[in-house]
Every structure is written in structure tokens, then in C-alpha cells.
Amino acid sequence: MLSQTEGVRGIAGHSGPRNDAKTEKSARTRWLALAVASFAVAALLAYGIWSRVKANKNLGAETSQLAVTTVSVVAPKQTTPAQEIILPGNVQPFISSPIYARTNGYLKNWYADIGAHVKQGQLLAVIDAPEVDQQLAQSLSNLNTAKANLALAEITRNRYQGLIKTNAVAQQDVDNAVGSYNANQAIVEADEANVKQLQALQSFEKIYAPFDGVVTARNTDIGDLIDSGSSGGVKTDMFHIAQPGTLRVYVNVPEEYSQGVKVGMSANLALAEFPGRNFQGKLVRTAEAINVTTRTLLIEVDVQNPTGTLLTGSYAEVHLQIPTQASTYLLPVNTLIFRSEGLHVGIVKDGKVTLSAVTPGHDFGDQIEIVSGLKANDQVIVNPPDSIVSGQQVQIVQATLPGDTK
What is the pTM of this model? Predict the structure, then answer.
């Protein structure tokens, strides 16, 4: 029989290999879990780094994109060879005349009021001038007396010239008779001249129209004292007559356009009382001299007005097509850059800015004419920032001139 100690050892020795297997399995499980955990940590760490790198890359790209200035550009509009200018004009009748009195007196009657169409030689008014009438009557009497004296002197002269042939009278008496005749003849001629003068003054008592036209003013009435101004008083302006069949429109053209204005060119008139309607005119003459005060050239445009549609004294806008010597461009005024070096515009070429010096022409308010410094295919920046410089990278957004069709 085995002792008790040996039995115990036998039992212990029998369970030893089983315990070692368990321990080894448990160790493998722990290592596997540790590997999985390490892999997961590594994956999370790699994902975090990748996300951070991607975010930094996106941020850098976005920052670079935002750093490029975005601009709108516009193409210059080329002007036409004939440029239209609009200038104010004064519409005046072809002939306009104030009618004054040539004799003193009181207005007896008038026969034409404002708006009356009168013909040349038509009676307009009659002046009552009794002083002139009496002076004429006196002069006629003096003329008749002078003629009677002349007739007597002629008879005496002829008689004495007949008697001298027979030596019945002295030569002195003949000479006296001839001298008396010549003196009386001179008196008759003087009296005749005086009568003609008073007859002319009497004829001025009737006022006639000097030409066909329209009475535009009547400045006197029956009973008014009429003063011809011969005695130093203020002359009486009785009527105004205008001939509106053809109208003269006077326009002051700025000096810069004076070389393009030629006699014979056409002009269109626009008046506020005729919206949407134009009246054709023709440039007939120029002053051929620049006014030193206004620096303008005075021109005359004639407009036919047979029906009297246009009224004299009206204000008109005169449209003239002035030929231009060189091709120019129009730009919005908000494309200009004012620098100490002069006037510039920003032009985009290959995504970069080039500042170009330009020469301005006429200012049309929202647009300005550029005489030099531009090309037809240039892309000009609209509303350029003050900090813009040549060589700066920009992004383009296309724009158009005001009024352009898309």
C-alpha cells in the first residue's frame, strides 16, 4: 500500500500539464487583445493625423483662393466716326424788326394786333400830327408866293433883255433883272425842298408793314403820344413784326468741335413742346471766328417753318453729327484710378493687373471718353481698389457698359 503522501503527489502530478495549457491560452488571448487595441489606437492616431493634414491642406488652399482679388472687368466701347453733340440753341425769326414812328403826334388808329399776319405795305396805324400838317400848308403857301415872284422876275428879265438890244435901258438894269430872276428861282427851289420834307413827314403819319410777317408786339394804343425821338425824347416802339417762314437757330459750338463744323451739314432740332419729334435744319453759315470770351464758334442753322409750327423765341436742343479725327473709346467713370502720376486704368492680362496711363476726352457724366492708352480688346477693371498694383493676381468677373445689350 501507498502512503498518504505518495497518494497526494500522484494526484498533483496528474493535473500539472492541464494547468500549463490554460496558462498558455490565457497569455495568447491577452497578447491578441493587446495587439488589437494597439492597432485600433494606431488607426485612430493615423486617422487623426490624416484629418489634420487634410484640414490644413484645405485651409491653405482656401486661404490662397481668398488671397486672390476678384474684380469685374469691362471692354471699352469704341465711338462712332461721327460723334453726336447736343447743344442749346435760340430759335429766332429770319427777319425781325421793331416799327418806330418818324413823326411826332398822337395815335389816331391802329389796324393790326398781336398775332396778325400782315403783308408788305399793309397799313398798321395812323398818327395825328396837326403841327406837321400846318407846317406843310405854310410851306405850300410860301412856295406859291416864290413861284409868283419868279414868274414876275422872269417877265422883267425877258423885257429888259429885249430893250437892251435897242439901248433903251442901261446894262445895269438888265443885270439887276437877271439877278432878281436867279434869286427868285433859288427861293422856289428851297421852298420846294421844304415842301417835300414836310410831305415826307406827313407820309410818316401812316405806319406800313415793311415785309410779310406776324405782329408779335403792339406797344401803343389810341391817344398815346408818339415820339419820333427827333427832339431828344425816347423813340416810341409801336410794333414788332417777325417773319417766321424760315427760322434762324443760333448755336455756340465749343472750340474743340469747331474744326468739325462745316457749312451745309444737317442738324436736328428737339423741342420740349414736341416730345419724340425732330425738325430738320441745315447749317448755313458760321462766324469763322472763336469768341475770345466764351471760346465758342457761333453758327446759324436755318429751319423751314412754312406752317408756323415752331414759335420764335423757343429754346431748342440742336443735335450735330461731328466727324471725329481719331477713334476713341468710352469707359464708365468708375474705372478710373487717380494717382499722383496721373490718370490710370487697371487692365487685366493673363490674370494679372497692368496699370495703364490714359488720356481723357469728353466727360459725359456716367461715361468718359478715352483718347489714348486703350485698345479695343482690353479688359478694364471696374471699381478698382485703391491698393491695386501692377502684377497683382486677380480673378475676373465679366461686366458690360451701361446700355449694352447682353
Answer: 0.57
